[in-house]
Structure formats: C-alpha cells, structure tokens
Specification:
mainly alpha; 4 helices
C-alpha cells in the first residue's frame, strides 16, 4: 500500500509506528487533541493497513540488519 493520500493520516500512522501514544500521535499529525477521535482514526481500515505495512517493513529491515550483524560477528574458519 502506498503512502496515504491525506498527509495528516500518513503522519499519524508514522507516529503510531514510531511508538507514540495515540493521543500524542493524533496531536502531532495536526489535529486538536482528542483521545476518542485518535482511537477512531487508528481503527480506520486504510490507516490500520498502513500501520501494519509500516510495522512489517520495519521488522524486515531489522531482521536484515540482525543477519548482517551476526555474519560480521560469526567466527570463520579463516579467522581462527
């Protein structure tokens, strides 16, 4: 799924993925602080899918980085 068309929605999704609490992410996206509306926005289908997509992409990047780190730290026969 590409970037959301609404910039506020995209920023909200990115802030949530970044670990911000829903009300804080809602305010940082440019909305008037409101816990109920933040919760509603979080559960909109397009935003929920985008958050899942962003989390999946982050997990994949972290897995690749972990693999590379392990490869660098692993002792090889040549090194020994």
């Amino acid at each position: 799924m590409p970037v959301l068309n609404n910039p506020k929605h995209e920023l909200f999704a990115q802030e949530v993925v970044g670990g911000k609490p829903l009300p804080e992410a809602y305010a940082l996206a440019g909305y008037k602080p409101d816990r109920k509306n933040a919760h509603k926005l979080r559960h909109m289908p397009a935003i929920s899918r985008r958050i899942t997509e962003l989390l999946t992409a982050r997990e994949e990047r972290e897995a690749i980085a972990n693999e590379r780190s392990l490869e660098k730290l692993t002792l090889s026969k040549e090194w020994v």
